[in-house]
Amino acid sequence: MLRKVTLLLVLVVLGMQVWSIRYEFEDVSKNLSYFLMSMEFAIFRYNEDNIDEYAYKLLRVRRSQGKRFSWIYLMDLEMGRTVCKKHEEDIENCPLQKGPGEKKVRCTFLVDVLPFYTKFTLLNSTCVDK
């Protein structure tokens, strides 16, 4: 009986390792529709959660990856602080702050998408000032 339990446990552990290898992240196009929507969602959440009164906008996509066989996207973004407040309409066309107010951040976001419901969930975010 103990052998059967041990064998079953070993098979479960090996199966989980094979499963995790199969579902690693791979590069995806920065123009992929759900990646773009996930990126917009991540930037929106960053602006909402940030205590800064000014909005940040995308400067550069440093990494765009998707988890195989899922709708989870990993993105590494560089963003800059704008002169617009975060609840203004057109942040994309808002100029960046210059001089003492100039600030850039680099963030890594992990976003899960339920495409049939157009629902986005921020699983993780890590940001550092540049």
UniProtKB/TrEMBL annotation:
The keyword Metal-binding does not apply. GO terms for cellular component: extracellular region. Its main location: secreted. InterPro entries: Cystatin_dom, Cystatin_sf, Cystatin_spermatogenesis. The keyword Membrane does not apply. It holds the Pfam family Cystatin. CDD domains: CY. It is found in: Secreted. Residues 27-114 form the Cystatin domain. Residues 1-20 form the signal peptide. GO terms for molecular function: cysteine-type endopeptidase inhibitor activity. Keywords: Disulfide bond, Protease inhibitor, Secreted, Signal, Thiol protease inhibitor. Belongs to the cystatin family. PANTHER family: CYSTATIN-12 (PTHR47393:SF1), CYSTATIN-12-RELATED (PTHR47393). This is Cystatin domain-containing protein.
